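Researcher: Sequence of SAM-dependent MTase RsmB/NOP-type domain-containing protein follows. Predict its structure.
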Amino acid sequence: MEEETSKLPLPDTFLDFLQTNGIDPLIYTAIESTPRYIRLKPGNEAYIEEIEAEIKCRLQKVNWLPGFYSLSPHIQIANSKPYKEGKIYGIDAASGAAVLALDISVGDHVLDLCAAPGAKLCMISDLLGDSGTVTGVDVARHRLAACRTMLQKYVLGDACRLFVADGTTFSLMPLRDRLDSISCEFALEEKKDTFTEWTSRRPWKERKRAARAKENAASRLVSETDHPELIFYGKASGVVGLSKYELYKTVSSSEVSSSGYDKVLVDAECTHDGSIRHIQKFEHWGWETLNGRVLNAERSDNLTTLQLKLLKNGFRLLRVGGSLVYSTCSLTVSQNEDVIEWFLKENSSAGKVTMVHCVVKITSCLFH
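Model: Prediction complete. Tokens:
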């Protein structure tokens, strides 16, 4: 029986783009046979048969990716009981591979520099269990708010902090017993603006600020000069009991080597040309929009500049001995190998690089 293929009418401009970048256009003919993936929240292994009955689909275990299952691309899980009860969540296998490449260990302090929409954060939190912390950063407030919702739904936010910030300039360290390093001057001074346990009921000042931001733009992006905005923190994140000074205290470059993050994930913004599902959406959005979102040369140049900046900052925040994973959903050399090559020319202290081509995501591992 022949494999069912899509009749996706790829425009000539996109075919030219693929040829220029050495990408086989045949990969976009497998849309109807490309599975979707879910991750089972740990502790729900005994409910597999029940979940299959609820979604009316047999789940196929992904042997190389623990906790992941593939299912028919036509199955919708959003209205299913297991999804609503927080037993499963949708996440691409490629995204899972990027998290797996971090090789998270007990007690790690992990930074996700491009955190939205949140599935990777959930997986990281799952792997950490009751140890370590995870810090999620994203430039778009509404997208990071979706991360917060997801963490709360799956009860995975206890050790998490979420900051609306520019990932190319974010500079806050993980909270490694930071209270011990507070100067005597501030230790003696009465704490002001101390963080109490987080609540979804925001103070009046914050509600007013959010309303003003909504008026200015439907989708607020922070600039390089904006202060990181903490929009969520869990009870075990280290934030509760700190003053704003203690939370936002900066450290010297020499301190970063020992107090930086153990693991950093830079799943950078890209053209998404490697995502079959993403390219399929242009059939509904209109192929003319493909030029602006994927094929525009100026946008591509801006993206590679952004990717390099994200990678450099992520590496700067990594402690000596830590590891960083850089990944994209692009198949182009310019957004992957070239970015890594540019980075390595400027950072001789980076250790061995391992390139992993997985599904539609290219992952690179760097070691400090």
